Amino acid sequence: MPDRSSAASGSRARPKVFYGWWMVAAGGVLNALQAGTFLSGFSVYFLPVTRDFGLSRAATSLAYGLGRLEGGLEGPLAGYLVDRLGPRKMIAFGGSLAGLGFMLLSLTHNFTEFLIVYIGVLALGMNAGFNHGIMAAINQWFIRRKGLAMSILTMGQSIGGFVITPLVAVIVLTVGWRTGAFISGLTLVAAVIPLSFVMRRTPEDMGLLPDGDRATTVAPWNISGSGPARFSRHVTAVDFAAKEAFRTRTFWLLALAMGLRSSAHIGVFVHLVPLMVWRGQTEATGAFVVAFVAFATFPLRAFLGWAGDKWANPKIVGITMVLGATSLVMLVVSGGTLWQLLVFASLFSFAEAVNGVAWSLIGDFFGRGSFATVRGGVSMAQGFASMGMPVFAGWVYDTTGSYHSALMPLIALYLLSAVVFWNLPEARPPSRVKDSSSVGASAGQ
Prior knowledge:
Elements: H1 4-9, H2 19-39, H3 41-53, H4 57-85, H5 87-105, H6 111-141, H7 146-175, H8 177-196, H9 242-246, H10 249-269, H11 272-278, H12 283-310, H13 313-333, H14 338-353, H15 355-366, H16 371-386, H17 388-400, H18 404-422, H19 431-443
Helix pairs in contact: 2-6, 2-7, 2-8, 3-4, 3-7, 4-5, 4-6, 4-16, 4-17, 5-6, 5-8, 6-7, 6-16, 7-8, 7-12, 7-15, 10-15, 10-16, 10-17, 10-18, 11-12, 12-14, 13-14, 13-15, 13-18, 17-18
């Protein structure tokens, strides 16, 4: 990584708008495309694909579950490539591959072909280009404002779910899911490569400093918020190598917490439209609820990001996991009226909106140098943990005609993740840092 002092000494006059915010804007558009066509969008495709291929809900869920597994297996390698090649190349490659995957998906004739294209092309591109490349780029450009930057970045997902997913739903429900998939693919291919050119590896490469700081105002990058120590924010002043991060207890507890969170969240999100149908609503109303969740998360992402820069991020994520569990309790006891489902969606939005804050914990704990590689390791654990939950939820419905017995374990997973997030410890500095500190202290005597 470029030396901070040399970057500071060679920095140019600070521009009116820090370039990192332009990267956040470009990343937000990319996230909008990913969420609108793929993340939120998959729930719109769920029932049409199920009917077209004559599948059970468990079988349709298998595609998403295997996509999560592929993302987990791919995570460490994709993260390593992002750290070595830079985010621009991986975003351009992954986004183009994902667009091709959507177009090929529209040409499949059976479920086997659908699975091969979905896992081997579409999910591969999405995981490589969007999930790893975009956040790794933003982590390099922000430290003090990382939580806010990550949250604004993920606001693109809210826009995608609120604006793009309803458009996809209109196409899918009027002219078919194949046409919707092909148009989604064309849109991705046309947009991703131009947007990727906005991405730069580090601010030091442009003679700038993280957060747009001036050299004269840069302090050591360990940040504590106000209030009691256990509720204040910690940001490490050390850049961990990936292998050093993997040896810490903090990494494995974070991977566990993210896995539990993802298991619960994905188990619900994949079935969000079917869940609304189960509660007596139409598919169109289900798509509206998906859009409502996206709309509600828009201000919440900014608020949670701002709060995360002030107080302890793990505590904030833990609180939203409790709200996620509460939303599922509401869904279980509700009578299926629209207002009750919107209350569920409002509470569920907190668990969705905290995504950027949750991922920013990697940078807070382990620094800037190997963010994508460490994130890939967390993604691998997350993928293995969450791949089975959408299939489980679909199997429960296929066998019982109800989602009730699937929601109870999802509530438990949310609560368990809340406990682990709340108690995440700070990562102990590597031995090389302790050794160098000892040498420096001895030299000063």
